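User: Hi! I'm working on a homework problem where we have to compare a predicted structure to a textbook description. Could you give me the structure for the chain below?
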Amino acid sequence: MELELLPDTGVASIRLGMSVREAVQAGQAMGFLPDVNDVNDVNDGDEPGQVFLEHDEYDMEFTLGFTKGSLTDIEVWRFREEDADVRVTFDGLDVFRTPSPELLRQLTRRGHSVEENDLGYDTLPELKMIFTNHSSFEYPMDDEGHPLYFDYVLVTSLSFEGPPRAPKGE
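Assistant: Happy to help. Predicted structure tokens:
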């Protein structure tokens, strides 16, 4: 399975702006199953909400964020099975199998503005995307013990300020 990250649009067939029902159905069509309690808790009201979708075969998740019943952000979490037959791509690059520093270099070479920070949140601000590798899952590590690949990508339609910044003086 290939899942393409589409800034300002969504991920694969899940589109920003969809209703809860539409987004969950799009995820189900790709084999991602919702937590029924999440779906029942998110409504068309003013309160934001989230729906968690999981793909059992790939041990991979999406978290769908809704505001006023409309999909505003999609969190894509890396598969935990290294041999999973899934690719998550952006601009032709496999974002979860290309080493993080190399992915950022390639994105910069392709003309994307990349903001890196010491907290590990790497941002493409004009595209409203954040890449990070902060999960507690045991993913492949480099020689220094740092995660080799990104394990999370956020695609959002919300006003974007970029990643958190380290306090001055640290």
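For your comparison, note the following. The chain has three helices and twelve strands. Helices lie at 20-29, 36-41, 100-109. Good luck with the assignment!
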